[in-house]
Amino acid sequence: MAIFQGLCFVLVLASLCLCTHGYTLTYKTELLGHKVMQLGIDDPWKEASSIKKDVQIFVSDGKKKPYSFINDDGVLVGFDVDLVKEVCLIVDMECHTILAPFTDCVFTDRNLDYAGSGLMSGWYAGCPGYEITMDRMNEFDFTLPYLTTSDSFTVAPGNPKEFDPDADDYSQFTLLHLTGAPSNAQCLTRLGKKFGNIILAQNLPEAKEALLNGTADVLFSPRNRIYGLEVLPQRVQCSEAGAGIMLKKGSDVAKWWNPGFKAFYASGNYNKLCQEAGLKYGSAPRCLDPPELASPELLSLLMKETKTETVEKEHLWKFVVSGRVAPYSFLNEKGVLTGFTKAMLDNVCSRAGKKCTLILAEVDECTVRKGELLFPGRGLMSGWFDACTGYFNTPDRSNSWDFTSPYLVSFGTFKVAPGNPTGFDPASYDFSEYTIVYAETAITNDHCLHRLHKKVGKMMIVTGPEEAQEAVLNGTASAWFTKELNIKTLETLPGEFHCENVGTSIMAKKGSQLPGWWNPAFAEFYDSGDYNRFCEEQSKMYGGKFTFPCLPKPEEKNRQTQF
Ligand SMILES: *[C@@H]1O[C@H](CO)[C@@H](O)[C@H](O)[C@H]1NC(C)=O
Ligand SMILES: *[C@@H]1O[C@H](CO)[C@@H](O)[C@H](O)[C@H]1NC(C)=O
């Protein structure tokens, strides 16, 4: 029996070797050489052994030669596919690479990149071959890089518009961006380029057509060769450190992949695999230099994460924002997600001793409106994240979500044209002589005025703040009822009116444990007076031009008559 098992074991090993396309990898620690020790890895097996051995699915769109593509026989092959196999073999993980649209990994909407549903839902462990950029780090984790990268500009043959990548100002050109590509608006900003119009292409054929028919002038992309178009010779860097496997935020994959990859790299077999790939797949992958030629920067990068991270069982609390609400949450000039909400989360989470992260998600992953009713979104219900920041706790939302205590007040005010030409008085009970304007999605609406026992006359409903301001300025409406605070064109009349019970809170899935730890930590933040000091500092950070609607100071709380 023992002999039989031993024999099977040998056969399994032998067949693995046969499967690894014709050359022998040296997996044994003693054969990995002194470079392993230099990189500080003693035993990749040991580090990986604490990880649960689920099957790991990696994803390819099948169109990236020589990294992962469908060969003439219809088989998915390429350097990325081989690398996944080899590293998984080293750490004894069962891994597969399957086909899926790349938008399952990342996609772009109005110049912001969001993590795709496949990665967020846990269908895939990771997406190999993605550039590690500042803005992607907002919402993804990455393994160590295993490829070098560069980004380039592509034009129609002959460069008819005479686009010059070295110029500082691209605003005369219509740029084209491939959905989810690292070569995006944030990268152009980091490169110090001025730019105007950027249009989005869903795929390469669409981008090609737009360049050829003149809809766009320049494609900014990570590609170095595009058949039928001219890739200009200049190269820029959108990535911080090359390309690695892109992971869901908080993923465990890097914890087993990195030790395995380091061992593979240090053994020299990584570079053998690169050379082989060049021969097998027709063009050479853009590999890292071999250990003996590696720059000190590369070696230190590979060293950086060598400290053994024990797999933490502690939950990573994920909060989301849309990333479009400056100065609450927005991508700064480097592409890093920043703002009031991020700073407040960091503060409260550290008081509570919780691990937290703020990532991006589209609004409808939090809440979906169907006619009159609000429903919870897919992302929140599927556990892509724990909570959505910046939501009012209203009675209709309490049906389907839980909320933390509020961290900002929200109240409506009436805004009028300078000088209040129609003599509108918010304190009066009868508004029937006046036209009042409000934005269609605002909670400062006719229902709110009814609850405030106001007699209303004509109500004008507009799509947003710009139109509302215009209506007041051109005299169509006497006053705009709104909770916007930072409107400089209009005069804000005294009087604060509350349309909901409390204020702006964090909205979590029904039954979530988040309010249970958040509320005490926030109460401590507030009661100590630190919250109000924080609020003042935040307002100063934005040049004093922006007022955050902070909660009243603890000592002033009881004086508030209208709460
Ligand atoms: C040019 O190509 C783009 C991308 O396919 C398409 O959306 C656009 O309608 C085309 N424009 C013209 C003028 O043909
Ligand atoms: C005033 O502005 C509103 C909102 O944009 C618009 O609907 C209306 O037609 C304008 N009226 C006049 C007289 O310009």
Structural account:
By secondary structure, the protein is an alpha+beta fold. It folds into 4 domains: 2-145 and 249-302, Periplasmic binding protein-like II (D-Maltodextrin-Binding Protein, domain 2), CATH 3.40.190.10; 152-231, D-Maltodextrin-Binding Protein, domain 2 (3-Layer(aba) Sandwich), CATH 3.40.190.10; 316-404 and 509-541, D-Maltodextrin-Binding Protein, domain 2; 413-492, 3-Layer(aba) Sandwich (D-Maltodextrin-Binding Protein, domain 2), CATH 3.40.190. The chain contains 17 helices and 31 strands. Strands 16, 20, 23, 24, 25 and 31 form a 6-stranded mixed beta sheet that branches. A 5-stranded mixed beta sheet has the order 12-11-13-10-14, covered by helices on one side. Strand 18 (329-331) and strand 19 form a beta hairpin. Helix 4 crosses helix 8 (253-266). The chain is globular. The structure holds 2-acetamido-2-deoxy-beta-D-glucopyranose (NAG) (2 copies). The site of one 2-acetamido-2-deoxy-beta-D-glucopyranose (NAG) has 5 residues, from helix 7. The site of one 2-acetamido-2-deoxy-beta-D-glucopyranose has 5 residues, from helix 7.
